[in-house]
Write a structure and sequence with these properties.
With 427 residues, the protein is α+β, with helices and mostly antiparallel strands. It has one domain: Outer membrane efflux proteins (OEP) (Up-down Bundle). The chain is built from ten helices and four strands, in the order H-H-H-H-E-E-H-H-H-H-E-E-H-H. The chain has a four-stranded antiparallel β-sheet with strand order 1-2-3-4, with no helix packed on it. Strand 3 and strand 4 form a beta hairpin. Helix 5 packs antiparallel against helix 6 and helix 8 runs antiparallel to helix 9. The protein starts with a helix and ends in an 8-residue tail after the last helix. 30% of the residues are buried.
């Protein structure tokens, strides 16, 4: 019996992959991160809102540089014709009717600057849409790997619980034969309880990640999701060069694109404020009707007088301050993004090396320790506490390996959020 038990325990401990979640329909999304991202791009409400806002901002460009609508004024003069008649509103019966058509003409360059500002604001709106998508994609990737972690942890905990139940059966036989102490039975019951509690917590976390992921996908919280099949392959180290990724970050980081557009818009707004010292014009043509005939024509030119020097200087200082603030935010965002990129690259490499050590060094050592402890326990040369410690070492080694894989995946998702695209995408 002990030989069969030993073989079963060793075989079970060597298997970690698989799903402990409920079965879901084959058509349910969730098996791959690519399918989840495609669905999120199509259905996420926040991304849809940002997409519509970007379209609305684009539609503001043409009106921003257009002339104001012309104005038509009709003025009735001498309604009583010097007291000869009662008041009337008929143009042919009053003393005279003046028709005036006017058009406002801003100083040269102002329309172009307003159009440029609106165009840059549209670019910023498109950048915010890209930023929303980058953040959404990172969240989807993070939830995918979290579900993978929960799934693998469930499988590992279930396997360990099965092993403990098998050990308990052997323990009962040994205890009946006087070969095991009562305290060993108590300790194994405590281990059972702890593992069951862990499975309860993992089951709750599985449902929570399902609800959060469905929220990002624009689906009901309890909609079915397939279990994750496998984690994405990590990029080759040659693709994770800091200098190359920094250049991709400079060109593709959505936040930097937004801040760059804002800085350019602030520069145009400053130029527009300085043009406020030049007057705008209103030109017009008028016609005067006497009875039923137009007999007089005239033209007019009107301009505003920007003589409030204090107000103008205040507006100019405001625009200069706003430009300086926009440039400072742009620089701060660039510095922060580069620092975050380096931090995540170093963490990804650390996680990669940790996973390698777990797989090829700690795991074999923990497995050898477990085998030796099991053999010693079968021969009565080790107590149950030693066997439990060896089992915990194997479990902790596997959990450490799994968490290193998950940390690498999370760091990769953050790097891709920073550069605005997948690392493997063609630059």
């Amino acid at each position: 019996m002990q030989t069969v038990l030993r073989a079963g325990i060793v075989a079970a401990l060597l298997t970690v992959a698989g799903s402990a979640g409920a079965q879901t329909p084959e058509s349910a999304p969730g098996a791959s991160v690519e399918g989840l991202m495609q669905l999120a791009r199509q259905r996420n409400p926040e991304l849809s809102a940002m997409r519509h806002e970007a379209v609305a901002a684009t539609e503001r460009v043409l009106p921003a540089g257009a002339l104001m609508d012309p104005r038509l004024k009709m003025e009735l003069q001498d309604l009583t014709r010097a007291g000869e008649q009662g008041p009337t509103l008929l143009p042919s019966n009053v003393g005279g009717t003046v028709y005036t058509l006017t058009q406002e003409l801003p100083w040269t360059g102002k329309r172009e600057l307003r159009r440029d500002i609106a165009s840059l604001d549209a670019e910023a709106a498109q950048g915010r849409e890209r930023q929303t998508w980058a953040e959404l994609a990172a969240r989807v990737k993070a939830l995918f790997v979290q579900r993978y972690l929960v799934q693998a942890s469930q499988r590992l905990a279930s396997e360990n619980l099965d092993l403990m139940l098998q050990l308990e059966q052997v323990m009962q036989v040994r205890y009946a034969g006087g070969l095991a102490a009562q305290q060993d039975i108590t300790r194994i019951h405590v281990e059972h309880t702890g593992m069951r509690a862990e499975l309860v917590a993992l089951s709750a976390e599985w449902r929570q990640t399902q609800a959060r992921l469905n929220l990002l996908l624009g689906r009901p919280a309890d909609a079915a999701l397939a279990a994750p099949m496998a984690l994405r392959s990590l990029p080759d180290p040659s693709q994770l060069d800091f200098a190359a990724l920094s250049e991709r970050l400079r060109q593709g980081n959505p936040q930097l694109l937004v801040e760059g557009s804002r800085a350019k818009s602030a520069e145009k707004a400053r130029d527009l404020s300085y043009r406020g010292r030049y007057p705008d014009f209103t030109v017009g043509i008028n016609a005067t009707q006497r009875q039923s005939t137009v007999r007089e024509w005239g033209v007019m030119v009107e301009l505003n007088l920007p003589i409030r020097d204090g107000v103008l200087k205040s507006q100019e200082r405001e625009s200069e301050a706003m430009l300086a603030a926009a440039r400072a935010r742009q620089e701060a965002a660039a510095n922060q993004a580069k620092a975050d990129l380096l931090d995540n690259l170093l963490a990804l490499e650390s996680a990669r090396q940790t996973e390698h050590l777990m797989r090829f060094s700690l795991m074999p050592q923990a497995d050898l320790t477990w085998r030796a402890a099991l053999a010693a326990y079968e021969n009565g040369k080790a107590d149950f506490a030693t066997l439990l410690d060896a089992m915990r070492q194997v479990r902790q080694a596997r959990q450490s390996q799994l968490r290193a894989q998950i940390d690498a995946q999370l760091r990769l998702a953050e790097i891709e959020r920073l550069i605005g695209e997948d690392v493997g995408a063609a630059p």
